[in-house]
Amino acid sequence: MAKMDELNRKILRELSRDGRISNLDLAERVGLSPSACLRRVQELERSGVILGYRAVLDGEAMGTGFVAYASVGLSEHTKAAQEAFEKAMIAAPECRECHNITGSREYLLRIEAESLAAYKRFHTDVLGTLPHVSALTTYVVMGSPKDERA
Q: Any idea which fold 6-46 has?
């Protein structure tokens, strides 16, 4: 695993902001020579600290501007019930994130849909048909003043 010193943290912050930054610009921003910067980035990739690079998408431009989070409770807490729920969420294109969480509910989902009506269809036709879903609360995103997901 790569050593997590302040220089590596700076590199990761810059790459999180702009994964397409050139090595030359990255080196300048973090105060390293280009060759030293490249070696560090390659080591962060090789050691699994950097898992990959992604495009940040505009949901409005893609027609999926409606965003909601949903907490989901299951009626059974068995491995089979969890695996069945997770498999259904992996197959659902509207479900962009599925997190197994602690607390009074088992899952937190990030749902992206075309509209409230499209979300209602997902809610009814997907979540509403899963056998172990016993509780569901939806939180509609009104705005995102800070969103650092890549």
A: Arc Repressor Mutant, subunit A (1.10.10)
What pLDDT score was predicted for residue 55? 86
Q: What is the pLDDT of residues 25-62, one digit of tens each?
A: 999 999 999 999 999 999 999 999 999 998 888 878 88
Domain boundaries, the chain: 6-46, 59-140
d(CA 31, CA 11): 10
Per CATH, which fold does 59-140 belong to? Alpha-Beta Plaits (3.30.70)
CB 133 within 8 A of CB 82: no
Helix (H) or strand (E) holding 10: helix 6-17
For residue 23, which of 10, 12, 38, 36 has the smallest C-alpha distance? 38
Torsion angle of the four alpha carbons 79, 100, 135, 109, in this order, in degrees rounded to the nearest 10:
-130
H-only helix segments in 47-145: 59-62, 79-91, 116-125
Q: Locate all alpha helices (DSSP H) within 23-144, ordered by sequence.
A: 23-30, 34-46, 59-62, 79-91, 116-125
